[in-house]
Design goal:
Ubiquitin-like (UB roll), 5-stranded mixed sheet, 3-stranded mixed sheet, 7 helices, 11 strands, elongated
Length: 273
């Protein structure tokens, strides 16, 4: 008669395992203990990261003043629903506002336990392209910001409506770059950007036309324009030629050069003798 082998009790198995670990030395025991602790920590973190203890319950949004501000805020709040402050999915937030061209980016910061701060980085319109009297704001990079206001933006006349949502014409992009580089006080006076015999021109309210020529050295050209426009002797000039910013030529005036400067004074556009 064959005897069936009996399995040892579970307590005996556990006991033998512990005794086996004990015989493996302190280093091995520490490694096993650390592995168990790591597993517990990972499991605990995973549970906490997705738990209601850190659920997003408040979303604070700043930085949007576009015409679609209400829709943008609603889209962000909807996307944030279900997130936690330990697991913020910024890709989902960006995807929620991808259809709004005014949004250039997001700065997201989670604040434990339940708050999410979102700062919207907007594309600012710098000029408006104009076709048959219809104006559409555009960013410095040529993105058309349809639905945004075009009030008090300099106009860039176009012969035909742009195809798509981004401007690609070289001359139009150069005009946008000039508008974007303008100091705020002069940009507020800019009314029209156009191409003439001397290149890119800008018309000012109550002031001479500015001749930029091209998009090179725009900062230096605007600084030179502001300096000369501040001079009383520049009043009455019909244009300022800024193509060489170190030597500004005024219509009906002699060129303004660094050689004409008196130390500590701003050069002026002197009348011709």
């Amino acid at each position: 008669m064959t005897r069936t082998a009996r399995r040892p009790p579970r307590a005996a198995v556990v006991g033998r395992t512990l005794r086996s670990l004990g015989r493996r030395g302190p280093a091995r025991r520490r490694a096993v203990a650390l592995a168990l602790l790591a597993g517990l920590l990972v499991g605990g973190w995973t549970w906490l990261r997705d738990s209601s203890l850190v659920a997003v319950r408040e979303v604070r949004i700043s930085g949007t003043a576009s015409a679609d501000a209400g829709e943008i805020r609603a889209a962000l709040r909807q996307a944030a629903a279900g997130m936690t402050t330990l697991r913020v999915r910024e890709d989902a937030l960006r995807a929620a506002v991808r259809e709004y061209p005014a949004v250039a980016g997001l700065h997201v910061r989670a604040r434990l336990p339940h708050r999410l701060d979102i700062e919207i980085v907007e594309r600012t319109p710098v000029a408006a392209v104009e076709v048959a009297g219809e104006r559409t704001p555009a960013s410095s990079g040529g993105l058309l910001l349809r639905g945004e206001t075009a009030d008090r933006l300099p106009a860039i006349p176009l012969a035909s409506p742009p195809a798509g949502d981004r401007l690609t014409d070289r001359r139009t992009l150069a005009a946008l770059a000039v508008a974007a580089a303008a100091p705020p006080r002069l940009r507020a006076r800019a009314r029209r950007l156009w191409w003439g015999p001397r290149g890119l021109m800008l018309d000012l309210d109550d002031g001479p036309a500015l001749v930029f020529g091209d998009r090179r050295a725009l900062r230096a050209k605007w600084i030179a324009a502001g300096r000369v426009l501040a001079e009383p002797s520049a009043q009455g000039a019909t244009y300022l030629d800024l193509r060489v910013p170190e030597r500004v030529a005024a219509g009906g005036r002699e060129p303004v050069t660094p050689d004409d400067e008196t130390p500590g004074e701003t050069p002026s556009a002197n009348p011709q003798p």
